[in-house]
Amino acid sequence: MSAAQGNILFSHSGGVSCLVNIVASTLHNHKDKQKLFICRNGISGLKAHQWHLSDDFTHWQQIAQSPASAFGSSRVYVPNVTDNALFYEQLFTQFKKDNITTFLCNGGNQSQNIVRRIHQAAKALNFPLTCIGIPKTIDNDILQTDTCIGFGSAAKYTAISMLEASLDLQSMCHSASQVVIYQAMGRNSGWLAAASKLASLISPNTPHMVLVPEADIQQTNILNYADDILTKYNHLTICIAEGVSLGGDSNLPPGYQLNQLIENHLNTQNHVVIPDYLQRSARHIASTTDIDQARQLTLEALKLAKLGYSDIMTTIVREKDTPYLWSVGHIELEKVAGYEKKLPSHFIEENQMNVNDTCIDFLKPLIQGEAYPTYLNGMPNYYPMKLWS
Asked: Where is coiled-coil annotated (predicted)?
């Protein structure tokens, strides 16, 4: 039976973002005559054979405008078929009962590995299944796609937060704190930290420093540069990626390590800001570009599934920088699954203390447009997360 005739199973995987519900809602609204099943708590539900019909959910418009996942997600993995064929035999038995012939999953580079493993298992066990990945991560570190679902909105939040914190600091730096250190998500890549530099579109030089894992960062250079900035402006704004290593044996997050370094050597009063989940859940200032791309990546996955494609991931293709023109495409999973896309070296200033105008020009189109949720009693009218335990 072809994918076009059978039903669809969809799963979130890994950390959520403010737009993952748009993927599910797009699938629900465009599934034709197929049934759409949604995994309970992501891949955990897949492994436990727990999924629900999308028709059992109501308030889809409210779900679509809400952050996080209305259906849950998880950070779990699946085995190779060579290690545990029984797992897949049991999984596909349940798939057959529910007439599931298409598996779609949105997630980061490791989640794409999950899609690939399920495809390989289906092929090895001669089970008719189409498997397609949809790129989602605010880290923006998946290869072969211009951007990923959630990144543009997280980048917008980061830039706005950096801008607002900088203005606050400048107002008080003559009598209070002189330094704000903002720690952005990004375990191994500096894409989100780099996005903080978009604040300079409104407030020149903000932030004064952007420290990313891809740069060659030396403590002495940080201190010398920080001292120069403080002498010139009497305040200092820094964005540092959570994956930056400052050396030493400290178990503190890099933002606090940097705080100690600057306080101890430059005798300043500092503030450290670690927004953590706020970066990926800020649906109230989502990027319209990000939303449009989330929908199109999902629609492309549906189209390709009907055509019988498998072992692929849908992608955003940048056609032109100015004006920003993009299209959707796809790439074989073997070329992206498990790999990481680093911030390019030509996006980093020669002194390694910041990102440059080339980086700003690349990122700027991804944060364009506002798509505010509806409000109720002065609050965003988000879906109340009526999840199963």
From this structure: none
What's 151-281's CATH class? alpha beta
Tens digit of each residue's pLDDT (9 = 90 or more) over 89-148: 999 999 999 999 999 999 999 999 999 999 999 999 999 999 999 999 999 999 999 999
pLDDT in tens, 29-74: 999 889 999 999 999 999 999 999 999 998 999 999 999 999 999 9
pTM of the model: 0.96
Instruction: Give the dihedral sign, CA 196/210/138/300.
Output: positive
Dihedral angle at the C-alpha atoms of 352, 354, 356, 361, nearest 10 degrees? 130
Q: H or E stretch including 163?
A: helix 151-172
Would you say how long the chain is, in residues? Answer: 389
C-alpha of 382 from chain center? 20
Q: What is the dihedral of CA 16, 317, 363, 154, to 10 degrees?
A: -10
| Residue 386, helix vs strand vs coil | coil
Side chain identity at residue 8, one-letter code: I
Helix (H) or strand (E) holding 294: helix 288-306
* Helices 254-266 & 219-233 angle (0-180, nearest 10): 60
Report, at the CATH architecture level, how domain 7-150+283-339+373-380 is classified. Answer: 3-Layer(aba) Sandwich (3.40)
Q: Distance (Å, rounded) from C-alpha 162 to C-alpha 145?
A: 26
Point out the residues that are catalytic.
139
Residue 318 structure tokens: 């940048």
